[in-house]
Every structure is written in C-alpha cells, then in structure tokens.
Amino acid sequence: MLTQQLVNGIVVGSVYALIALGYTLVYGILQLINFAHGEIYMMGAYVGIAVLGVLAAMGLTQQSLALSILLVFLVPMVYCAAYGVTLERVAYRPLRQAPRLSPLISAIGMSIFLQNYVQVAQGARDKAFPNLLSLGSFEVMGAHVSGLQVFILAAALAMMAGLQLFIHRTRLGRAMRATAQDRTMAALVGVDVNRVIAVTFAIGSVLAAVAGVMVGMYYGLVNHYIGFVAGIKAFTAAVLGGIGNVTGALVGGFLLALLESFWAGYVSAVYKDVFAFLVLVVVLIFRPEGILGGSTEVDRA
Amino acid sequence: MRKWTLSLFAVSVALLFAASSPRAAETIKIGVAGPLTGDQAAFGEMLKNGSLLAAEEWNAKGGVVLRGKKVKVELLWGDDRHDPREGVSIAHKFVNSGVVGVVGHFNSSVSIPASTVYSEAGVVQITPASTNPKLTEQGFMTVFRACGRDDQQGEVAAEFIKNKLKAKNVAILHDKTTYGQGLADETRRFLGRLGIKPVFYSGIVQGDKDFTPVLTAAKQKNPEVVFFGGIHPEAILLVKQMRERLGMNAAFISGDGVYVDEFFKIAGKAAEGSYITFTPDQAKIQAAQGVIAKHRERFGKEVGAYTIYSYVAASLILQSIQETNSTAGARLSAHLRSKAWNTALGKIQFNAKGDVLESPYVVWQVKGGRFVQLN
C-alpha cells in the first residue's frame, strides 16, 4: 500500500510540478500571478484531443506511433506557447506599469474568458481522450505500475531537466535570470526585456501543454474547467515550494501530491483538499516565503 | 411639480397596461431545470429533449385548452449545473416568471432545496430523476416523482450482490451528494439485513480526477465488489483507475446515475462487465414506442435513461391543466394524485406522498459496449 500510494502521488506530483513551473517562472520575472495559466493547461488537453482526432482520421496512429506521440505533444506545445505569448501581449503588457492589482484582475478575467470560450467552442460536455498508448503494466514491490505512469514521469522529468539546462546554460536563460533579478538593470545592459518576458510565458505554456496532454492520456477525460482546480493546486504547490523558485515548484508539486495521496489513502479521501490547504497554511505561518523561497537570488527565474 | 407627478402617474398607468396586456395572449409556462451544461450535461439533455417533445406535441395541437381557449406552451430553461445554490435561485426565477409547473430538477441534492421554493409558491414540481427518498418525505403537496426511490434501488443492488454475485467483501464508495450517499447508505442498510457488513466505506469528492489513493486503500481489503453511489463522471474515472491503474478486478456496481452511454463510451474496456441498477427496458414498453420514434426523428438519436420520464412529467402537468381547467397549484396537485394516468411509461399512479406506486428496479450490465438487461 505504501509503495502504491507513492506511485499514485508521484504521477500526480509530476503534473502539479509542470504546471507550478509556469506560475513560478512568470512570478519570478514579473511578480505577477498568472491566474489564466490553468486554462492554458486545459487548452493543451483539448488541442491534444483535436490532434489525435486528425491523426486517427488520417490513419497515422496506426502507421507510426512514435510520430503520432510526437505530434500529440508538439502541436499543443506550439499552440499553447502562442496563446501564452498572446495572453501576455494582450492582457499583461499594457498593464505593466499599473498598480499590482490591475494585472491580477486582468489575469482572472482572462481565465474566465478562456474557460467560457472553450466551453462555447467545444461544448459543455466531458470529452473522451482517445487511448493512444497501451503500454501494459507491471508489479513493483506490491505496487501496480502502468507503463503510462512511467512514461508520464519520464516525460515530466525530461521537461524539467530541459528547463534547468535552458535557464543555466543558454544565453536566453541567462537573460531570464538577469531580468528576474532586476528588470531595469537588465534592460540597461542590453537585455531585450519584452522578448525575455514573452519567452518566459512561452516556456510556461509549453510545460502546461505537456501537462494537459499527459493528464488527458492519464484520466481519459477532459472538460473545460479542469484548468481551475489544477491551476489552484499548482499555484499552491508553487507557493508551498517558494514562488519564484524553480526547484521550489518541483519540490512543492511532488510534496503536495504525495501528502494528498497519503492522506486520502490512510486517513480520509473526503478531506483530501482540506488537508492539502491546511499544510499550505501551516507552512506559510512558519515560512512565509515557502520551503525554498528567497534562498538564492540566482536560482530565481 | 404637478406636471412631474402627472407624468409619473401616466407612466405607471402605461406600465400597468404593458404588464397586463401580454396576459391576454399569454402562454402556459413550464420550467425545465437540470444540469444543462457541465460534466452531467448528458442527463440535462435528456430532461430538455423529453420536455421539448411533450411541449411541441401539445403546441402542434394548438396548445392546452384553458378556459375555452387554446393556449400555447412555453418552456423556460434552468441550468442548475447540479449545484444546490444554483437550483434554488433558478426556482425563485421560475416562480417569479410565473411558471405553472416544473419538470426537474435532476439531482436530488438540487431537487430537495428547490422543492421548498416551489411548495411555498404553490407550483407543481415533477422530478423525472431525483431518487432520494427524502424529496417526497417532506410532506409537500406540490412534489411529485415520476421515477423510483433509492430505498427500492438499494434493496435490488444489495440482493444482487448477495444472491447473484455471492460476494462477502463489499467496498462502498459515494460522492457525498444527497443522491450518491443516500443510495450508498440504502445499499449498505440492505446489505446489513442480508448479513453483509461492508469491508470499506468512504466518500470521494465530486469533481476530483484522481481516486487512486482511496481505491488503493479499498484494494487492501480485497473487495469482490465495489459499489459506487454517484453519477457517471466519477464512475468513469473510478472504474478506469480500478482496472488500468491498480489492476483491481472486483465487480463494479452502481445506480441509475451511471446509466448513460458516456459511461462505456469514455471508460471503454474498463467499463465492460459493470453492473447498473435501473428500471426495466423502456424500449419494450408498448406505450413508449411513439415517443422513442419521435425522439429519433427530432434529435437523430436514441432516448436516454430519463428522456421518457421527462416527457411524461411535462405531459402530466399539461394534461392536468387541461383537465382541471386551471393553473392553480393546489388543484393541479390534487388532480395529479386523484387517478391512474396512462402515460408513455405505462400506467402511473401517485400516492399521497407524490411517489409512483410501482417502479421496479432491475440489474443491467455493460456487455460489448452497451447496457444489457439481466434477467
């Protein structure tokens, strides 16, 4: 039971962590909570369904599974990145000099808009996510692990590793870190701040798109308000780990999911969310900056 | 100043006429409420289409004969999104817009609080689908239920588990709603009478997506049967996660809230072999054939679990209006109780509480991607 709950928690945790990264990246650079981020994730799942539909109609899912999987992830990534950048351009950039509350309201407005837009465009019903991968399952130390779970964890870890490399090893990553430290100063030394911010939104959205497609595959069911709950949970994870801190988002995501999983398994499934938020409150009382928050300026981004 | 008062008077007189003049060419307003959007929209659509068929049928005849004149039927839609608060505000809206009767709501947790509003306003309410016993136990004259009750349904489920599945270890899950928990508790009560004490009992959160933690805990007790009191969105995820994530092969059994095509369409292979308690096959009812054919022609698909129930609920309200020649709630509710009705579901008679006298439940199974009635 212990290992099984561990497996349950880790898979959900990798999804939380991927979404939490988007919150934390944007916060690190703009000190803005992008409440529409959950909706980007939801749209990722919908685009995944659309791509699968097209691929199945073309018969490609039968011919080349590897190519299909690549496209099912790649197209939502590109699509969501475009949405993320547009979101920033339309809803946040004009308000960059405004009081902090204005972009926040704008973010909530965008969230409601996107949710309703998808509801109108895609219908209010649950949508089935076609089964693409049947990887079978195996037993490890009394726990039932499916191939899909391994795939999800591997994909999530790969994305996270890729992000770390990008932030620490590339020119653009360095520009991101510089912008996070001091936007004005970075602009003065020649960093194109607007471009860096756009890239940040694109990266966050790409991660959310991957999470959306993975969740669609995992649960087989998507609707237009999955973004709300997932967004709140991921935001909690980001705050728990220390918002603005990339490693913190990962720690927070996995920690939150594991706590939920163990609490629901051993104590009460009904009070799962109550417990999750109780932990958040307790952590914030003793460490208002989150578990890893405010540790090093360099790691912010 | 005098001029001002005079014009105010003139405006108010004009408003008075404006308010009263449409009354001459008025319609009979029937409210239809249920989860028209959201994860349970499949059920909302059944309520909508069933009532629509009934209303169109009457309007094709020119309307309902009231005080010697033919009056058209107008349906008002209320989307409660299976939220009790939303349901109550829709009930107030319906009452304020002068509905004569209400078809709805779908979920017991919504129907019960809304029924207080309808009862106070003297508006007849026939729910096609809310099965929680409490609805008709409140002593409201205006409340009617076209479907069965969960104490009947739970008994059938319990007997099936004991006698057909011969199970001893039963895990019970519910979604904490009035309907879900009510059905789970009724089943647990009847299982207790048969000498079976569930090895696992837990609530889950409606709208949640991951139930593997609670299922893992249930799996520890080696259940042969998992009973779920709730609606299809959660049932789909539960059965998928049981089969695909945890490799559980316990039989899955649930109630009428899962009797909807989405269940096996989305859950796919995982849903195969699941059991559902529901009423006997409506396609075999002679009187229902007309509605089934009309529905196919009008909407291009087959009727759902509660389409005909909604059709019957709407028809009964309209028929009693014509027969009593009145739109007064008290007269309509007395008339509805007064006799046996010939409906598309066969003969229906309401008792003093507003429940139908007979509503049998049988067990269905998902076989080859459709529901099959078991004998």
TrEMBL record, chain A:
This is Branched-chain amino acid ABC transporter permease. It is a multi-pass membrane protein. It comes from Tectimicrobiota bacterium. Coiled coil: none annotated. Keywords: Amino-acid transport, Cell inner membrane, Cell membrane, Membrane, Transmembrane, Transmembrane helix, Transport. It holds the Pfam family BPD_transp_2. One of its GO terms (biological process) is L-alanine transport. Belongs to the binding-protein-dependent transport system permease family. LivHM subfamily. One of its GO terms (cellular component) is plasma membrane. It comes from the Bacteria. It is found in: Cell membrane. GO terms for molecular function: L-isoleucine transmembrane transporter activity; L-leucine transmembrane transporter activity; L-phenylalanine transmembrane transporter activity; L-valine transmembrane transporter activity.
